[in-house]
Automatic annotation (TrEMBL):
Residues 1-31 form the signal peptide. The keyword Signal applies. NCBIfam families: TRAP_TAXI. Keywords: Signal. Gene3D superfamilies: Periplasmic binding protein-like II. InterPro entries: TRAP_TAXI. The keyword Isomerase does not apply. This is TAXI family TRAP transporter solute-binding subunit.
Length: 321
């Protein structure tokens, strides 16, 4: 299949050896011949806040894997999101994880040698949220104000910090708070911050709830897409948040792709099954969150700068019409 990039070769690791043995015992053709039940293969999925998209997507994917892959025990890990998820997959703290593309180094062979891709899943849109009555109407209005730029270890933190820098609001120009999504929503509602950033697929449930109870304004970020592309990578694109999503005035904002990533040493046969179910159960995943319904085989293979795991690449090649 054109466009499918794979890693050239992988060094055997202790995790690879263990997963290969466990998976061989767990797959149906082998498991049927065994008298004793095999030790389950653990698949930990690093997600994010319980009220954000990664978690809903991950919970649904875990349920599908537990139901349809014999011998697998999948579970989600609540995290600060993208940057922490990549670190967990790299270090062996999770087998799968979700991340924004801008979190990844442009040279993954050096910075992320143990992390490869299963699929591009959807785009994250950067929200800058304030109250409906707030005087904050542009990014420039954040000067001197209290703003949550996302939790430590989050993709939001990386994107928001880059945006503030290109907008000339670096350093002490903004009073920055490092709060996760739920803490940011509470702080804005209680008047402890003036605005917050959050990067997520539409709709973000916590922002929906805030809009329904408090009333919000989204700040337009469209003018900062090109400066971000110029100063960083061309991963950033322009996307709209229509009024139908949160009942607020429509805005244009900054978006970047989201990937499902996997440890490079997870066996090919298991990753192939994960990829198959990710693509074939899109309707079920979309019922958990609409963002999952935007996946397609055509877009899934576009995972630069990460190569595809060989198991994922094998499934995409086999599924080509």
């Amino acid at each position: 299949m054109n466009g499918v990039r794979t890693i050239p070769g992988r060094r055997p690791t202790a995790r690879l050896a263990l997963l290969t043995v466990l998976l061989g015992a767990a797959l149906p053709a082998v498991a049927a011949c065994r008298d004793e039940p095999a030790e389950p293969v653990r698949i930990r999925i690093a997600t994010g806040s319980p009220t954000a998209v990664y978690h809903a997507f991950g919970e649904s994917l875990a349920a599908i894997l537990n139901r349809e892959v014999p011998g697998v025990r999948a579970s989600v890990v609540v995290t600060a999101a993208s940057a922490q998820n990549v670190q967990l997959v790299e270090s062996g703290g999770a087998e799968l994880g979700f991340t924004q593309a801008d979190v990844l180094s442009a040279d993954p062979g050096v910075a992320h040698p143990q992390v490869v891709a299963v699929a591009r899943v959807y785009d994250d849109l950067l929200h800058l949220v304030t109250t409906a009555e707030s005087p904050v109407r542009t990014v420039a209005d954040l000067r001197g104000r209290r703003v949550s730029v996302g939790a430590e270890g989050s993709g939001t933190g990386i994107t928001a910090t880059r945006l503030l820098d290109v907008a000339g609001l670096d350093g002490p120009a903004v009073q920055r708070e490092r709060l996760g999504l739920d803490a940011s929503v509470s702080a804005l509602r209680e008047g402890r911050i003036d605005a917050f950033f959050f990067s997520g697929g539409l709709p973000v449930r916590a922002i929906e709830l805030l809009a329904g109870s408090t009333g919000i304004r989204l700040v337009d970020l469209g003018e900062w897409v090109e400066p971000l592309r110029r100063d960083h990578r061309e991963v950033y694109v322009s996307r709209d948040i229509p009024s139908s999503v949160y009942g607020a005035e429509p805005v244009t904002t900054v978006a970047n792709p989201n990937y499902l990533v996997v440890a490079a040493d997870v066996p090919d046969s298991l990753v192939r099954e994960v990829t198959r179910l990710l693509m074939e159960r899109r309707e079920e995943l979309a019922a958990a969150h609409p963002a999952a319904g935007r996946m397609s085989v055509r877009s899934a293979i576009a995972t630069a700068p990460l190569p595809l795991h060989p198991g994922a690449a094998a499934w995409y090649r086999a599924s080509k019409p």
